[in-house]
C-alpha cells in the first residue's frame, strides 16, 4: 500500500523527501551540538552509585547478547525501581559519560539515551537542547533499525516497542506546543528553533512511521492474516521478526493518533483499514496501545459526527478498563489508564448529550456519578450548556498539534445547532400528534417558521452513518434516535420505538449464575464431608430460580 | 455500498496517488487541484481527494490556493447533511477561517445546517456570495437536490408556498423539478399541497425492539447440561 520508490525505506530517516527546499539545505547536516555550549566534557566527574554501574553494564551485556528475557526485566522493573530510588528528582547519568565508562557508542547507548530522555520528559523539564538531542537519538534508533544491512538482531519487549512509538509522538506533540510558545523564550532559543526547522517536523515524523510500516510489510501481513495466504512470504525478511512486525503495527496506531492531532479524522480512521477491531487484534497485547487505539478511534468518530459509533467505541474500552483495573498495578500504566478513561467518560458525556443512547448499565451509572451535573446542564440548553460542552471538550480532547481552540470552535458549532433538541424531544415524547403552532407555544417560540426549521434539523440529526461491517469509515445511514416523526404540513405525527423487556437475557444470566453456584457447591462437597439434602445452604440456592424482581419484570 | 470515500468516477491515477505516501508530495498539489476543477465542471464530488489537497496546504502553507479552497468548501456545502464541510474546516486554522470568502461560506453552511433554506437562497443571491460558487457548475441544482432530500425525509405533504421558498423555484421550474422527483401537486394553484411519496424516512411507526437471542449466548448453559 505504501510502496513508493521515493519513500524512505532507503534514505536516512532524518532526510525527509518532501520537505520544501529551503529546509533541505540545513537538514542534511544535522549536528545541533555545534549550537550549544559544549560543557559536557567538564561533567566527566559524575558520581555513579555501584548499583547503577552494575545495572548499566548488565543492560549493555544483555543488549549485546540480545537476551529478550533479561531486557524485559530491565525495562519493566529494574529501570523504574532504580529511578524511584536514585533519580526521582534528577536525570540519569549523562549518556556521554556512560558511553565513555562502558566504552560503548552502539545500539546500547541509543537505547539508554531513549530511556534517559524519556525520563527527563516524564519527571523533569526538558531544555531545548534535550529536545533536539532526543530527536536525533530517535533518528539514530530508527536509522539503525531501518537502514542497517539486513534486519537487526534486537528483541525488545512489546511494551517497550509500543512506548518507543508512543513517546516519539508524544515528544513531537510536546515540541510543537513548545515551539508555539513564543513569549516565554529567549532570543537564542528562538534562533535555534528558526535555524532548525527539520527538528520534529511533521514530515520527518510521518516519514519514520510510514517507513516502519513499509519495512515491516505489516499491511501485507494483516491482509494475509485476514484473507489467508502465505504469512511468511508476506512478512519477508524484516517483517517476520517480532521487533519489526510490532514496530510496524504500532506505527499504524501511531499514525491514527498523529492524524487526529492534525485534525485529519478521515485519514486517522483510514489507517485502521486493515486492522479488524475485535478481541483477537494485536493491539490487545499491550494495554496502553489497546486504550490509545479506542480513544482515538472514538474521538475521530465523534468529530465526524458519528456519535453512535463513538459511543460504541468508548463503551467497549471503558467496560474493558473497569473489568481489568485491578490488574494494572504498575504506577505509570495505572496513571495513564485512569487519565485516559476519565477523558473518555467526558467524551462519552458529550456524545450522549448530542445523541441520546442507552448505555451499558455500569458505564451509565459511572457516567452519571462523574458527569451527572454537566449532563444536566447540557440538557437544559442555553449559554451555560455551551460552556459545559466547551469545558468538557477542552479537558478531554487530545493535545492537538493543530490549534486546539479552532477544533473546539468547529465542534461546538455542532453543539450549538442542536441546543434546542433535548427540550423539543421532551415535549414530543408526550404526544402522538400535535400541531406546529401548539408546540411553538410550549417552547415559547414566536415564529412558527423557526420551529419548522428546528424540526427539519432534528430529523437530519437523528440519522447518522453507523458502522455495520467493513472498514471503520464505512457505514449505513440509520436512525440514531428512539423518537421519530413525520410531518403532514403543519401536523407533527410522532412515533417512539421502545425496547421490549429482555426476559431471555435475564434468565440466561441467572441460569448461568445458578450453574456456577451448583458447580462450586459440588466442588466444596467433594472437599468436605457430605451434607444431607434439606440442610440449610443447599436448597437455598434453588430459590434463586424464582426471579426476585419478577413483579418488576412484568 | 459506500461511495463517499471512493467515488466510481475517480481516475485510477488519483486513486493510487491519494492511497500512497505520494499524497504528501507537494509536487502533486497541481494534479489534485486539476482533478478538483474537473469535479467542479462535471458535477462530481470526491471528498477524500479534496481533503488530500487541504493536507498539503496544512503542511506547506505557501501552497495555499484560495480559489481551490473555496471550490472545495463549496463542493462540501452540497453535501451539508453529512460532516464534509466540518472535515474540511478541521484541516484549516483560525487565520484562514477568518478570510472573507471562508467566513461567507461558513455563514451559508450555517443556514443550511439550521435548515433556514429561505435565508440561504436570499443570501446566496447577493453578488459577493454568488461569486464564490460560479466555478462550481450545477451548484444550485445540486443544493436543491439535497434540500429536496431533506424535505422528503420529514414531510409526507407540504404546503406549496413553503416548498417554493425552500427550493427557491416557482411556476414551471418547480413543476418540472416535482416531476423529476415524482412528487405530485394537488393543483396548479400557488396555495396547493404537494404530496411526497412514502420512503424509509417519512414513514414512521412506533416499534418495539424485541430481544434476539444469539446461539452463542446459550453455549454456557448447553455446556452445563452436558456435564450433569
Give an overview in words.
- The complex is a heterodimer of chains A (554) and B (228).
- Among the domains of chain A are: 286-418, no CATH class; 420-499, no CATH class; 503-553.
- In chain A, the strands form two sheets. Chain A has a three-stranded antiparallel β-sheet with strand order 1-5-4. Chain A has a two-stranded antiparallel sheet with strand order 2-3.
- Helix content of chain A is 62%, strand content 5%.
- Chain A is globular, with a radius of gyration of 29 Å.
- Chain A is mainly alpha-helical.
- Chain A contains 24 helices and six strands.
- Chain B has 228 residues and is mainly α.
- Chain B has a domain at 12-114: Serine Threonine Protein Phosphatase 5, Tetratricopeptide repeat (Alpha Horseshoe).
- Helix content of chain B is 58%, strand content 5%.
- Chain B is flat, with a radius of gyration of 23 Å.
- The chains are: A mainly alpha (554), B mainly alpha (228).
- Chains A and B meet through helix 9, helix 13, helix 19, helix 22 and strand 4 of A and helix 3, helix 5, helix 10, strand 1 and strand 4 of B.
In short:
By secondary structure, chain A is mainly α.
Oligomer: heterodimer
Radius of gyration of chain B (Å):
23 Å
* Overall pLDDT score of chain A: 82
Q: Label the CATH architecture of the domain at 12-114 in chain B.
A: Alpha Horseshoe
| Mean pLDDT across all amino acids of chain B | 89
Highest-level CATH class of the domain at 12-114 in chain B: Mainly Alpha
The beta-strand count of chain A equals: 6
Region (Disordered) (chain A): 1-29
Keywords (chain A): Cytoplasm, Initiation factor, Membrane, Protein biosynthesis, Transmembrane, Transmembrane helix
Subunit structure (chain A): Component of the eukaryotic translation initiation factor 3 (eIF-3) complex.
Pfam family, one (chain A): Paf67
Amino acid at each position: 500500500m505504501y510502496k513508493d520508490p521515493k519513500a524512505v525505506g532507503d534514505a536516512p530517516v532524518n532526510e525527509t523527501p518532501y520537505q520544501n527546499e529551503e529546509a533541505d539545505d540545513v537538514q542534511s547536516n544535522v549536528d545541533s551540538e555545534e549550537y550549544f555550549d559544549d560543557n559536557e566534557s567538564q561533567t566527566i566527574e559524575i558520581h555513579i552509585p555501584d548499583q547503577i554501574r552494575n545495572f548499566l553494564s548488565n543492560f549493555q551485556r544483555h543488549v549485546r547478547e540480545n537476551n529478550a528475557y533479561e531486557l524485559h526485566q530491565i525495562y519493566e522493573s529494574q529501570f523504574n525501581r532504580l529511578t524511584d530510588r536514585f533519580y526521582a528528582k534528577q536525570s540519569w547519568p549523562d549518556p556521554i559519560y556512560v558511553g565513555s565508562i562502558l566504552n560503548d557508542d552502539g545500539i546500547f547507548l541509543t537505547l539508554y539515551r531513549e530511556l534517559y530522555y524519556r525520563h527527563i520528559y516524564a519527571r523533569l523539564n526538558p531544555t531545548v537542547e534535550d529536545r533536539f538531542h532526543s530527536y536525533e537519538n530517535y533518528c539514530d534508533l530508527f536509522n539503525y533499525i531501518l537502514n542497517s544491512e539486513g534486519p537487526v538482531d534486537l528483541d525488545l519487549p512489546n511494551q517497550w516497542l509500543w512506548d518507543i512509538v508512543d513517546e516519539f509522538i508524544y515528544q513531537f506533540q510536546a515540541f510543537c506546543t513548545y515551539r508555539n510558545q513564543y513569549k516565554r523564550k529567549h532570543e537564542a532559543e528562538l534562533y535555534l528553533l528558526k535555524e532548525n526547522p527539520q527538528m520534529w517536523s511533521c514530515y520527518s515524523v510521518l516519514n519514520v512511521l510510514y517507513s516502519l510500516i513499509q519495512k515491516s510489510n505489516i499491511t501485507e501481513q494483516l491482509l494475509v492474516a485476514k484473507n489467508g495466504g502465505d504469512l511468511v512470504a508476506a512478512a519477508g525478511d524484516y517483517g517476520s521478526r517480532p521487533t519489526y512486525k510490532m514496530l510496524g503495527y504500532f506505527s499504524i496506531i501511531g499514525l491514527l493518533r498523529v492524524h487526529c492531532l492534525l485534525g485529519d479524522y478521515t485519514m486517522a480512521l483510514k489507517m485502521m483499514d486493515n486492522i479488524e477491531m475485535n478481541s483477537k487484534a494485536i493491539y490487545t497485547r499491550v494495554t496502553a496501545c489497546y486504550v490509545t487505539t479506542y480513544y482515538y478511534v472514538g474521538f475521530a468518530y465523534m468529530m465526524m459526527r458519528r456519535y453512535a459509533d463513538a459511543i460504541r467505541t468508548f463503551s467497549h474500552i471503558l467496560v474493558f478498563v473497569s473489568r481489568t483495573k485491578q490488574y494494572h498495578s504498575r504506577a505509570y500504566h495505572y496513571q495513564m489508564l485512569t487519565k485516559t478513561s476519565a477523558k473518555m467518560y467526558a467524551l462519552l458525556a458529550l456524545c450522549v448529550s448530542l445523541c441520546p443512547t442507552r448505555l451499558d448499565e455500569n458505564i451509565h451509572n459511572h457516567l452519571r456519578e462523574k458527569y451527572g451535573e454537566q449532563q444536566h446542564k447540557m440538557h437544559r440548553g442555553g449559554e451555560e450548556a455551551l460552556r459545559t460542552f466547551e469545558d468538557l471538550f477542552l479537558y478531554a480532547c487530545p493535545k492537538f498539534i493543530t490549534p486546539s481552540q479552532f477544533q473546539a470552535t468547529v465542534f461546538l458549532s455542532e453543539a450549538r445547532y442542536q441546543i434546542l433538541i433535548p427540550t423539543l424531544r421532551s415535549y414530543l415524547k408526550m404526544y402522538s400528534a400535535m400541531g406546529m403552532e401548539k408546540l411553538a407555544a410550549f417552547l415559547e417560540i414566536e415564529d412558527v417558521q423557526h420551529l419548522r426549521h428546528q424540526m427539519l434539523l432534528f430529523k437530519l440529526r437523528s440519522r447518522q452513518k453507523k458502522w455495520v461491517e467493513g472498514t471503520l469509515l464505512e457505514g449505513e445511514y440509520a436512525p440514531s434516535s428512539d423518537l421519530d416523526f413525520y410531518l403532514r404540513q403543519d401536523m407533527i405525527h410522532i412515533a417512539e420505538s421502545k425496547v421490549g423487556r429482555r426476559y431471555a437475557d435475564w434468565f440466561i444470566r441467572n441460569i448461568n449464575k445458578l450453574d456456577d453456584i451448583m458447580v462450586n457447591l459440588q466442588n466444596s462437597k467433594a472437599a468436605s464431608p457430605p451434607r444431607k439434602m434439606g440442610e440449610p445452604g443447599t436448597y437455598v440456592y434453588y430459590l434463586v430460580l424464582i426471579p426476585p424482581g419478577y413483579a418488576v419484570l412484568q | 455500498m459506500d461511495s463517499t470515500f471512493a467515488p466510481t468516477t475517480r481516475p485510477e491515477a488519483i486513486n493510487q496517488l491519494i492511497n500512497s505516501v505520494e499524497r504528501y508530495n507537494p509536487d502533486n498539489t497541481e494534479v489534485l487541484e486539476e482533478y478538483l476543477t474537473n469535479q467542479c465542471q462535471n458535477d462530481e464530488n470526491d471528498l477524500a481527494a479534496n481533503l488530500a489537497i487541504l493536507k498539503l496546504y496544512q503542511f506547506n502553507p505557501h501552497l495555499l490556493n484560495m480559489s481551490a479552497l473555496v471550490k472545495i468548501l463549496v463542493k462540501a456545502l452540497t453535501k451539508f447533511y453529512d460532516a464534509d464541510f466540518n472535515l474540511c474546516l478541521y484541516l484549516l486554522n483560525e487565520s484562514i477561517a477568518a478570510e472573507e470568502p471562508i467566513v461567507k461560506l461558513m455563514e451559508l453552511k450555517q443556514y443550511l445546517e439550521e435548515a433556514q433554506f429561505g435565508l440561504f437562497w436570499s443570501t446566496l443571491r447577493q453578488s459577493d456570495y454568488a461569486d464564490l460558487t460560479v466555478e462550481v457548475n450545477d451548484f444550485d441544482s445540486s443544493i436543491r437536490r439535497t434540500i429536496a432530500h431533506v424535505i422528503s425525509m420529514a414531510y409526507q405533504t407540504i404546503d406549496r408556498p413553503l416548498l417554493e421558498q425552500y427550493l427557491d423555484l416557482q411556476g414551471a421550474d418547480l413543476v418540472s423539478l416535482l416531476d423529476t422527483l415524482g412528487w405530485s401537486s394537488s393543483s396548479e394553484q400557488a396555495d396547493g399541497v404537494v404530496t411526497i411519496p412514502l420512503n424509509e424516512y417519512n414513514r414512521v411507526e412506533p416499534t418495539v425492539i424485541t430481544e434476539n437471542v444469539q446461539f452463542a449466548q446459550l453455549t454456557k448453559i448447553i455446556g452445563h447440561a452436558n456435564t450433569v
